[in-house]
Amino acid sequence: MKGLAYNHKGSMHALAATVRSRLFVKYAGLFVAVVTLALVVNGLFELWFTYQEQKASLIQIEHGEAATAAGRIEQFLALIQGQIGWTTQLPWSASLEQRRFDALRLLRQVPAVTELAEIDPQGHEQLRVSRVAMDVVGSNIDVSNEPAFTQAIARGVYYGPVYYHRQSEPYITLALAGTGASSRGVSIAQVNLTLIWDVVSKIKVGKSGLAYVIDADGRLIAHPDIGLVLRKTDMLRLPQVRSARAAGAHGATEDIQKAENLQGQTVLTAFAPVANVGWLVFVETPIREALAPLYASFLRTGYVLLGALVLSFIAGSFLARKMVVPIQALRAGAIRLGAGDLTQRIQMKTGDELEALANQFNHMAGQLQESYTELERKVEDRTKELAQSVEELRALGEVSQAVNSTLNLETVLSTIVTKAVQLTGTDAGAIYDYDQTGQEFHLRTTYGMAPELIDALTHAHIGIDEPNVAAALAEREPIQVEDLRNDAASDVNEITLKAGYRARLVAPLFRGDDLFGLLVVRRRTPGAFPKSTIDLIKTFAGQSVLAIQNARLFHEIEDKGRELEIASQHKSQFLANMSHELRTPLNAILGYSELILDNIYGEAPEKMRTVLGRVQSNGKHLLSLINDVLDLSKIEAGQLKLSLNDYSITDMIRGVYAAVESLARSKRLGFRLEVQPDLPAAHGDDRRLTQVLLNLVGNAIKFTDQGEVLIKASTANGAYTVAVRDSGPGIPLSDQQRIFEEFQQADSSITKTKSGTGLGLSIAKRIVEMHGGRLGVESSPGHGATFSFTVPVTVERQA
Amino acid sequence: MSRNIARRKFIAAVGGLAAAWPRVVRAQQQAMPVVALVNGRSAASSAENVAAFSQGLKENGYVENQNVTVEYHWLDGQYARLRSLMADLVRRQVAVIATPGSNPAALAAKAATETIPIVFAVGEDPVRLGLVASFAQPGGNATGVNFFGQEVVAKELHLLHDLVPKAVRIAVLANPANSSVSEPTIRSIQEAAPTIGLTVKIITAATASDIDAAFAGFTSDRPDAVFVVPDGFFSSRSRQFATLAARDKIPAAYWNREFVTAGGLMSYGTDLADAYRQVGAYTALILKGRKPADLAVIQSNKFVFAINVQTARALGIEVPPDVLSIATEVIK
Fold it and tell me: What ipTM was assigned to the predicted interfaces of this complex?
């Protein structure tokens, strides 16, 4: 137990080392993980929202910029339109020279207009001023069919499609009709749109966001990269432009906010339409710019995460230490307690639940210690009791053994008294016999009693009216006297007290209603006998009764057996003698009657011969009966001895067959032999076995009226079996055992007709059994019967 | 940039990709690209144009001596030096040859190389000059700006006529060394003059003394006004022109406002400084990796009509109010 505890302790220490770090890591790790998770989730959310907000705000800014640009372009066009408007206010009555300078002034004021033509109401060009070419006055060229003129006349204002000067400079034709009665006519201005470039190129969204303008046909007319404009880049291949053209007409917002630009960069884009001309202003910003704050945020999150990791690691370690160290102390204490060191107390002054836990541990240890002490005490008691019980059991076992192993009643009773006194812790004991005729008890066996006391008690009269005895007999329970001095005075009490005994326990020995005697134990000290003693005495009393009864029964049986044996011997002797004595005169009767029939005494008359025939047959029957009885009595008297010699089984069977064949033939029965050809040479009493077979075959022929009788012989396992089967009436199962008993036949009515002594099978059975074999029958009514015997091939000794 | 580096730092710290660092440093240590600016003018007269060129570079992210080196080659009228200069530039494989406002330089560059990018600013049709295949798709190694030069001389002549209606006999002064400009310009003037009742006489000058000689010749055959044909070298002699014209009390018309600033009577033409700016911007784009073949030729469209009222008064010319009202720049 101690060794085991130490081993346990050792493995606990090994375990503690690994567990310690794990708990520490778990605590610290959990702390770090929680902090990290919170920060990561927070960071991700922040990143996501930052991205969404950034994107939304960028789109909003872009939209604002686009709208502003569109507004400025509108303003630009409106300004030009307004300026040109002035030229249409002039009445045609004014001099053309005047109109020319007005036009030149217009050119000066409006740098975008590179050429201005004034058409009279009839559609004839009256004036053309240009920044490049020389002014033309009064050319009268007919332009009345030009769309600029017709449309301006029809609608008041005309914006032509964007066209390119020298394939590269975007221009638009703007025509305006005069409204006054005297100033009807149309001013047609060629407006250079590259000035819009200034507007567009000044738009900066973020660091690299830019704006561009497309015309109604989807061609680029303004872009910070002028080259793209000059190359008349077709913007319709961009999906956002197509989508915007479809939506822009209705002033709808952007369908596509994220797309690729001409350079294949992914951009955030927004647009705004320019009124009147159907142009669209786009503003785009590379998506990576929208993501730039995200990188900052990512970086920030990273730093925070790193810092938080370090902090949380430190804090986690600190907390884990705070937690683990007391737990460690608790563990150490618990391990020592677990190892059995219950005097151990855990010292902990953390002032929290852990201290409470430690106190709880200490309390538990105290309780355990107490319990252990109590338990040890109890175990000691129980062990003592157990030892006592074992002692009792052993004593009882000895008593039982004595009762079973010896029929010497004296020995048994002595053992009982001895053990009873020893086990009950009393000082002396005795068993009394009950004398039924004298109605008194006689001392039979004693233990621990002085010879004087024995002598005194032997001569004392102890009747059934003795006070304690009478009570015990009445209640059939042990009666105790705690102090003989206080008991009613009697001879026995007197004697007992004198011998120095103070207390007594008397148990009656009853078997049913039969009283056998008393079992008494005495003690020199007064006082009550404990219940266990009383129970024990009861048990011993029971054993005593059994022993006495067994002894009596045994003696009775022994006497009866002896008488029976003598009677049986007398009977057998008588039968043997009688048979012999009967046979002698009968042989004489048969012999003389045969002499008469042989006409030794003269010719006998036929009538006499008939009578003599009957005498002969009845005599022979009587003789065989006597022979059988003789055999049987010899067997029973143990006088029949087998004469063992070598014989042939086959010859034996054939002999019997030959002997009874005529009998079968006379009854017209089939009679067959089925003999295994290689039956071995046998050793035994062939004469007696022939008698057995003859009996069986004879019975078969006798009880069979039609059909056949079959003799079968075979050998196996060092024995041979001869079976006789007939087709007779068969024997009911209930009779099959009976027929082997003396003077019994299956059917008494049959006996009358078939005759027979009823001893044949009995004798046959005995003979077979003397050979160490068996004789049996198998039959059922209506299906014939098969009698068979099995005998060892070689019989060396009579069984 | 700092944010970028910070990000890299973070990535390096987190992922252990410290190798990202040297690459940044290496990029900054790389040799700066060299841009050669070639012009027929003198350095002294070109401060404004150089400033415009630098402005253009800056618009597209290049700053002189920070991430680009600009070599200025001022020919000061010595166009003959162009051949050897170009050969030298080609041998040294400069990054870009810029030739703003100089047809000879542009043509010489085009003749010298088919690989080094050329950014020009020419007053004539660059297609006709053989510099580009088309305005929209230059196709070769040259692109640039087309400012209106020869095309606007008729307009300039008309304005001179508006300003000095009495002047009928016009002396046209041209630099024969810059024939790609002077020849078509003279043709345009000769076509336009009769339509407004003017007669022209062509006088040539290729050097400063030629200019002096030309004005000296006016004493015997005095014209009503002088019309100076655009030329880079002439540009750098603006003060000489102004002095001589004032001395001889002859109204003179130029193509560039710098003449008017220097004391010339009037000028009409595109803003040359603006063309320099645009050349600078294109040069920067090419430094960034764009191909000249894909950069469309820009048409300069900023026209300046400048009048020096002081000069007019000294010449006894009363500027008509209508003319004054259409001038973009009036120097008083």
Answer: 0.81
